């Protein structure tokens, strides 16, 4: 059987962001993969060491768009750990609300992307309509549709009134029935099941070997979720369930994200009902002493880790982060070999890669 190479990227209709895949193919079957990244490297880690702690709030939020809230959120936790800052309890709840609203919007994007790739565009538009509802909610509460700009060292920059809390609950309640419909379609539609079940399998042992995180890991049976295993913000005060599946295929990753949207709705509902009173941020700008810290959060794509080192000046000595897509895209070396050419886009899409996060 003839062997040949298929190049995908760095600019390709399959890819939302630039990355280059060189696939070795025999007949219609993928047998090898080489990933070449770096096309959108911007040197953000270097730039972060030229700016002060407060300017970096703006910079870290622009590492990427779909995970944008988690970057300043995790960065703030690392800096607060160095400075020994305990943020107000109300701020913990407000950070959690913003985090989960952002997660719902991000997951809905990928939930729509998978049917779009396989040609089920009516379901794609249905999912994107729900995501647009979340975009409107973000604009109403935070003033922005993508970069929320809610985090600050010592708390948050926003608050919600009782009326705004009721608006959030009403909006999220309106998502529940459409989400049930989308879930029902994914479970029963022959086209979706045929194009996603048994495709791009990542067994549990390989998931452990490659260190994958987030929905990719949980779809392979690994129940690790930072919100549950290493809670931060208000997550230790809430009931949070890690959603898992066992089969590790494209279908499992799709269903994990659908179920996590429902779980995120429940988390926001708990936050608003349990919301304590009090301040939302420190009433002064704290000085940051010399020290180092590591903080992590559960971004929409998985565990996000920030390392921060300071030397007592207003500018950090070092900031470095490990993003979830980095281990996840390496696992494509397991998922793609054995797949057919037609399955390549849906397998790549199922890990929900964020190239800009990885190439900072």
What does this structure look like?
By secondary structure, this protein is of the alpha+beta class. Helices cover 48% and strands 13% of the residues. The protein contains 15 helices and 8 strands. The strands form 3 sheets. It has a 3-stranded antiparallel beta sheet with strand order 1-2-3, with no helix packed on it. α4 runs antiparallel to α11. 45% of the residues are buried. The mean pLDDT is 93.
| Number of extended strands | 8
Portion of residues within helices? 40-55%
Cross-sheet strand order for the largest sheet = 1-2-3
Q: Provide the low-confidence segments as ranges.
A: none
The CATH class designation is: Mainly Alpha
CATH architecture verdict: Orthogonal Bundle
Structure described in brief:
It is built from 15 helices and 8 strands. It is α+β, with helices and mostly antiparallel strands and 360 residues long.
What layout of secondary structure does this protein have?
Elements (H helix, E strand, L loop, with lengths): L2 E6 L11 E7 L2 E8 L7 H5 L6 H6 L9 H14 L5 H29 L3 H22 L8 E2 L2 E2 L5 H27 L1 H7 L7 H7 L3 H5 L7 H4 L20 H25 L16 E9 L2 E9 L7 E5 L2 H6 L1 H4 L8 H7 L4 H4 L2
Antiparallel strand pairs: 1-2, 2-3, 4-5, 6-7, 7-8
Helix pairs in contact: 4-5, 4-11, 4-14, 5-6, 6-11
Please describe the structure with a list of short key phrases separated by commas or semicolons.
alpha+beta, three-stranded antiparallel beta sheet, 15 helices, 48% helix, globular
């Amino acid at each position: 059987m003839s062997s040949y190479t298929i190049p995908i990227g760095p600019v390709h209709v399959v890819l939302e962001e630039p990355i280059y895949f060189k696939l070795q193919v025999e007949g219609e079957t993928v047998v090898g993969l080489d990933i070449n990244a770096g096309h959108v490297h911007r040197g953000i880690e270097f730039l972060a060491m030229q700016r002060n702690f407060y300017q970096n709030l703006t910079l870290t939020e622009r590492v990427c768009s779909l995970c944008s809230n988690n970057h300043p959120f995790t960065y703030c936790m690392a800096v607060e750990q160095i400075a020994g800052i305990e943020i107000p309890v109300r701020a913990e709840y407000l950070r959690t609300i913003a985090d989960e609203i952002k997660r719902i919007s991000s997951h809905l994007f990928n939930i729509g992307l998978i049917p779009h790739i396989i040609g089920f565009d009516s379901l794609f538009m249905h999912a994107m309509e729900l995501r647009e509802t979340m975009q409107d909610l973000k604009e109403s509460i935070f003033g922005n549709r993508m970069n929320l700009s809610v985090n600050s060292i010592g708390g948050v920059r926003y608050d919600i009134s009782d009326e705004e809390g009721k608006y959030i609950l009403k909006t999220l309640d309106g998502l529940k029935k459409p989400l049930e419909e989308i879930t029902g379609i994914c479970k029963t539609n022959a086209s979706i099941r045929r194009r996603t079940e048994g495709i791009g399998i990542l067994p549990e042992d390989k998931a452990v070997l490659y260190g994958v995180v987030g929905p990719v890991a949980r779809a392979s049976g690994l129940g690790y979720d930072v919100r549950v295993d290493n809670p931060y913000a208000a997550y230790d005060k809430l009931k949070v369930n890690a959603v898992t599946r066992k089969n590790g295929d494209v279908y499992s990753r799709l269903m994990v994200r659908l179920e996590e949207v429902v779980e995120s709705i429940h988390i926001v509902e708990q936050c608003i009902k349990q919301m304590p009173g009090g301040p939302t941020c420190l009433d002064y700008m704290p000085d940051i002493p010399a020290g180092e810290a590591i903080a992590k959060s559960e971004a929409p794509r998985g565990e996000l880790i920030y390392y921060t080192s300071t030397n007592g000046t207003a500018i950090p000595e070092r900031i470095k982060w490990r993003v979830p897509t980095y281990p996840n895209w390496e696992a494509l070396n397991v998922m793609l070999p054995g797949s057919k050419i037609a399955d390549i886009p849906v397998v790549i899409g199922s890990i929900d890669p964020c190239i800009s996060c990885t190439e900072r």
